[in-house]
C-alpha cells in the first residue's frame, strides 16, 4: 500500500466530510417519502386496502450520496413502493397506472408539478428550493418465485427473500396477467452492503452513542453513522463525476463503483486506508465468464452490473482509464505533506473550490495560496485544472530544468515568436515548440497537450495524455496545429531512469 503522509491522511478524511450532505437533507427526504406513503394509505386511495412497504434505495439508502457538482443540481431520491398485491389481480400496467393516479392527486393537493411517468418509475419534482426529486418504483413481493428460479439453476439463495417484482413498460408482458415480471432486490443489496461494513459501522455507532451519552445505540440514526467504506465511495464518485463532466455518457455507474468498493473493503478504520485499499484491488473483483465481463449483483447472481460492457466495450476502457487516473491522483497527493500542492494535484478531478473548503480547517495558508493562484490566473486556472489532463505518470525526483519556447508559422507571413499565455494565434497556423534542458543524455522526453473548449470537445480531441517525443541529439521539439478556438496547454517532461527529472510547466496557447 502507498505510504500516506499525515497531512494527506487528515485532508482526505476532511474531504469526505465536505462531500457529505447535511443531516437535514436526509431528514427532509425521509419526511417527503413518508408523506407520500400516508397519502397512498388514505381511505380514498386505490391502495387503501393494500399493505404498503416503502423504502429508499440507491445512494440515500447506502449513505453514499454526495453534494451536487454545482448549486443548481438536484438530489435524486429513489423510493421503492412495495405493495402487498397479487399478480393475479393486477398487471404491471395496472399497478403502474394506479400509482401514477395517486401521485397526480398528491401533486395537485400540494400544488406540485404533475409527476412524470418513465419506463419503470414515476418522478415527483419538488420546488427548486428543496433541490431534490423522488423516483417512485411500484413493485410487489416476489421472494418465493425467485427462490424457485434460483434453485432450478443451483444459484445462491442469499437475500432471495427480499426479492421484488417491478414494472417496466418495455417488458413484453407489461399488459398481461402473468407471473413473469422483471425482478429486482434493492433491500437485499442494501443488506449485503451493510454486511460488508458491519464491523466498522457498529464500532462507529457505539462510539457516537458514548460520545453523545445515548442510552441505546439505536438512538443514533443509521444515516448519521459514516463508515470509511461509505466515505471512500463518496470521494470516488466525486472523482468520477468531475473526470467525466465533459463526457457524462461514458462514466462508470455508481452501482459498479459501490459494488466493487464494497467487495474490496477490508474493514479499514480510516477513510484514507479504505480509499487506498479499494483503489488497489477493486478491479480484481471483476470476473470474466467466457468472453463477458461480469460484476454480479450480490443480491441476485443472475444480474450482471457490467452487462453494457459487452455491447459497448468502450465503457470497460473508460472504467479502466478512470481507475488508473484515480490511482495516480491519490498516490501523488498521498505522497506530499504540502497541502497547497495536494490541492493542485487533485483539483482537475475533484474541483478546486471543494478542495479549498476541505482544507480550510487544517491550513488557511494553503487555501489562501490556492485562492490567490485562482484569482491571479483567472480563466486560465480552469485550463490548468481541466479534468482530462492526466496526472503525471512517473514519480517526481527533480534533477534539473526544462524550458519551452514557441514559434508560430502560417502561409504568407514570417515566423513569429509566441509568448506563454500571450496574444491569440490564428486558427490554421502551425506551432513549433522547442524545449531546452540542462539534463545530461540519456533521458526520454514526453509531451502533454491539453485542448479545451467546445470546438475541441465536439471534435473529440481534448487529449490530455502523454506522447513520447524524439530526444536524440538534444533536439527537443514538437509541431502542433492551431485547430480549435480557445486556450490550450502543452508541457514537456524529461524522464530519466523512470523518474520525472524535470518538467517545463504548462505553456498556454490562445487560439482565435
UniProtKB/TrEMBL annotation:
Cyclic GMP-AMP synthase DncV-like nucleotidyltransferase domain span: 55-136
Residue ranges of domain Adenylyl/Guanylyl and SMODS C-terminal sensor in the record: 387-511
Keywords from the named record: Antiviral defense, ATP-binding, Magnesium, Metal-binding, Nucleotide metabolism, Nucleotide-binding, Nucleotidyltransferase, Transferase
Keyword Zinc: no
Keyword Plastid attached: no
Entry-linked InterPro entries: AGS_C, DncV-like_NTFase, NT_2-5OAS_ClassI-CCAase
CDD domains on file: NT_2-5OAS_ClassI-CCAase (cd05400)
Reactions catalysed: GTP + ATP = 3',3'-cGAMP + 2 diphosphate
Protein's name according to its UniProt entry: Cyclic GMP-AMP synthase
Organism: Pseudomonas benzopyrenica
Lineage: Bacteria, Pseudomonadati, Pseudomonadota, Gammaproteobacteria, Pseudomonadales
Amino acid at each position: 500500500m502507498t505510504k500516506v503522509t499525515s497531512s494527506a491522511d487528515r485532508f482526505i478524511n476532511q474531504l469526505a466530510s465536505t462531500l457529505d450532505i447535511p443531516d437535514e437533507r436526509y431528514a427532509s427526504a425521509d419526511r417527503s417519502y413518508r408523506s407520500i406513503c400516508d397519502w397512498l394509505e388514505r381511505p380514498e386511495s386505490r391502495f387503501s386496502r393494500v399493505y404498503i412497504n416503502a423504502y429508499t434505495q440507491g445512494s440515500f439508502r447506502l449513505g453514499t450520496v454526495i453534494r451536487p457538482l454545482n448549486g443548481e443540481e438536484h438530489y435524486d431520491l429513489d423510493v421503492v413502493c412495495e405493495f402487498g398485491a397479487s399478480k393475479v389481480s393486477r398487471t404491471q400496467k395496472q399497478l403502474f397506472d394506479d400509482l401514477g393516479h395517486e401521485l397526480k392527486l398528491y401533486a395537485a393537493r400540494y400544488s406540485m408539478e404533475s409527476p412524470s411517468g418513465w419506463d419503470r418509475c414515476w418522478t415527483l419534482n419538488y420546488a427548486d428550493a428543496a433541490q431534490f426529486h423522488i423516483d417512485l418504483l411500484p413493485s410487489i413481493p416476489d421472494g418465493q418465485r425467485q427462490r424457485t428460479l434460483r434453485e432450478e439453476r443451483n444459484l445462491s439463495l442469499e437475500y432471495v427473500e427480499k426479492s421484488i417484482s417491478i414494472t417496466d413498460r418495455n417488458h413484453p408482458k407489461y399488459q398481461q396477467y402473468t407471473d413473469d415480471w422483471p425482478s429486482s432486490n434493492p433491500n437485499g443489496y442494501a443488506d449485503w452492503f451493510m454486511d460488508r461494513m458491519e464491523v466498522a459501522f457498529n464500532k462507529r455507532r457505539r462510539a457516537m452513542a458514548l460520545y453523545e451519552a445515548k442510552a441505546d445505540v439505536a438512538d443514533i440514526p443509521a444515516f448519521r453513522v459514516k463508515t470509511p467504506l461509505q466515505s471512500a465511495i463518496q470521494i470516488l464518485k466525486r472523482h468520477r463525476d468531475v473526470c467525466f463532466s465533459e463526457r457524462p455518457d461514458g462514466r462508470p455507474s455508481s452501482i459498479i463503483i459501490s459494488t466493487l468498493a464494497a467487495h474490496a473493503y477490508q474493514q479499514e478504520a480510516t477513510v484514507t486506508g479504505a480509499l487506498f485499499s479499494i483503489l488497489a484491488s477493486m478491479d480484481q473483483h471483476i470476473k470474466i465468464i467466457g468472453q463477458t465481463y461480469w460484476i454480479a449483483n450480490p443480491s441476485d447472481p443472475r444480474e450482471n452490473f457490467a452487462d453494457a460492457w459487452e455491447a459497448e466495450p468502450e465503457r470497460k476502457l473508460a472504467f479502466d482509464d478512470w481507475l488508473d487516473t484515480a490511482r495516480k491522483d491519490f498516490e501523488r497527493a498521498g505522497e506530499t505533506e504540502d497541502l497547497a500542492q495536494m490541492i493542485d494535484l487533485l483539483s482537475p478531478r475533484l474541483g478546486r473550490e471543494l478542495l479549498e473548503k476541505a482544507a480550510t480547517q487544517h491550513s488557511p495558508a494553503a487555501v489562501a495560496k490556492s485562492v490567490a493562484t485562482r484569482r491571479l490566473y483567472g480563466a486560465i486556472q480552469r485550463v490548468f485544472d481541466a479534468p482530462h489532463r492526466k496526472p503525471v505518470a512517473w514519480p517526481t525526483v527533480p534533477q534539473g530544468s526544462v524550458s519551452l519556447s514557441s514559434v508560430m508559422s502560417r502561409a504568407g507571413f514570417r515566423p513569429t515568436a509566441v509568448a506563454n499565455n500571450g496574444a491569440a494565434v490564428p486558427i490554421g497556423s502551425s506551432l513549433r515548440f522547442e524545449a531546452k534542458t540542462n539534463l545530461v543524455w540519456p533521458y526520454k522526453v514526453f509531451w502533454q497537450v491539453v485542448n479545451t473548449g467546445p470546438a475541441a470537445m465536439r471534435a473529440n480531441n481534448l487529449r490530455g495524455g502523454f506522447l513520447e517525443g524524439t530526444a536524440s541529439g538534444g533536439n527537443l521539439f514538437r509541431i502542433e496545429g492551431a485547430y480549435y478556438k480557445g486556450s490550450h496547454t502543452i508541457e514537456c517532461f524529461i524522464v530519466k531512469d523512470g523518474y520525472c527529472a524535470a518538467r517545463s510547466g504548462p505553456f498556454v496557447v490562445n487560439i482565435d
